[in-house]
């Protein structure tokens, strides 16, 4: 396994919270850090914030809203085109809400329940598309929240729990 200073880490949902803290940590360790988010200006500000804190210039931001599978594919395609090998992929992007929070069921333009798409389907598509940039030593880490509800395999798209 490479040292962190020789590694590239891609972190989804890295414009705030745990994702931003993780990106900053990897940057402090000298890794090449690829950040992802759904808001271009917030993403660029995050890059500048991390650069200010760590002094690293080994940061690049990719934009892609996981509520659209087309945007997920486009972000992955941009990363693929850049050709940077990925040693660590941290799938951290996600949203909360759902039946236990009292929020209403929302569907995406792709026809899936919003939380299901962002927290799972988009992550799988993104990861599968990026596999050519990984090798047998690469690691994939999927982050989940303690706030997640139990998965009902009979109602994956949460149509019954509205």
Automatic annotation (TrEMBL):
Higher taxonomy: Bacteria, Bacillati, Bacillota, Bacilli, Bacillales
Record-given protein name: Short chain dehydrogenase
Record flagged with keyword Translocase: no
Species this protein is from: Lacicoccus qingdaonensis
Keywords linked to the UniProt accession: Oxidoreductase
Alphabetized GO MF terms: oxidoreductase activity
InterPro entries attached to this UniProt entry: NAD(P)-bd_dom_sf, SDR_fam
